[in-house]
Amino acid sequence: MIKIILSRTSALRFLDAIEKLFPDAIRMRLEDIQQNSDIGQSLAAFQKYGNDQISLASNTGRVIQQRGGGFFSGVLTALTGVAVVLLVYHWSSRESEHDLLVHKAVVKWTAEEVVLWLEQLGPWASLYRDRFLSERVNGRLLLTLTEEEFSRAPYTIENNSHRRVILMELERVKALGVKPPQNLWEYKAVNPGRSLFLLYALKSSPRLGLLYLYLFDYTDSFLPFIHTICPLQEDGSGEDIITKLLDLREPTWKQWREFLVKYSFLPYQLIAEFAWDWLEVHYWTSRFLIVNAMLLSVLELFSFWRIWSRSELKTVPQRMWSHFWKVSTQGLFVAMFWPLIPQFVCNCLFYWALYFNPIINIDLVVKEVRQLETQVL
Asked: Where are the bilayer-spanning segments (predicted)?
């Protein structure tokens, strides 16, 4: 507001100087304006608009700031460049989705692929790597092994927990005929549509996304999720994340209570906690998810603050129903046309939601903070 007053004072001084220097020219120009009614009306409207803006600034104490790039735009551009480099590196370094074991029948596994499957069970599995390689255990031989054979030479897996986990995972492999997905990329390879849906659903509507997992993907997705974010006390023994997820039991009441509280008030924290437990498996991707969850939590708080400050609490049920209808309609629309969407487009959308949305949300948070500052002034 001080800037506006100073600008107006400077303009008045400039006009006074012009009138003193060129009095005859000013008088002739005023006579021309008085004779032309259109010009007079335009000038009157312009002056009224200027007075209204100054009055608004004086009453509210707000300063109208112009949007500009500056430092923040440079930082945003730099972050976008870093994300592009990481994405290109990820695409170039990761093996093709069609070469993953989740697409290859277990009976066709080589000895090296059996060892790869074993090592993905956890860091402890590297203790038995050389034993399986020396015996050249391929997929067909793996399916014939029993607990008794694992406990004696040449395998000699004396740790009961290790042996139990290997047997449990082996039973899953026998039932499916392929390796079940055990990380984000394998899950995407097996369920490309569902993984893309979950990324966008957990961003725009995390509560509905988690409800979808509970209703339609309880065993494969929801149980691992709730056991990761709401573990039992006895699970704090330092076991790796893969080992914990292999032994999935029905959640206890304590786990349900913790989950429902976070589900109601801090849904994005659930996503951040889940990603945190996968830091060793997905170093950079988990960090992108954690940052994005924090930013989305801030944006949700801003949304609730706007509703509260505008006294629009009565509109919350209507907003919830409209949001539910919008998300459901979009999900149904994508499901109908999913077979027609090229795989390349799906991959672009997936990686955009995974790596670029956090950068976009940084910009949204900064805009919300600036808007809040102008309201306070």
From this structure: 71-91, 288-308, 329-354
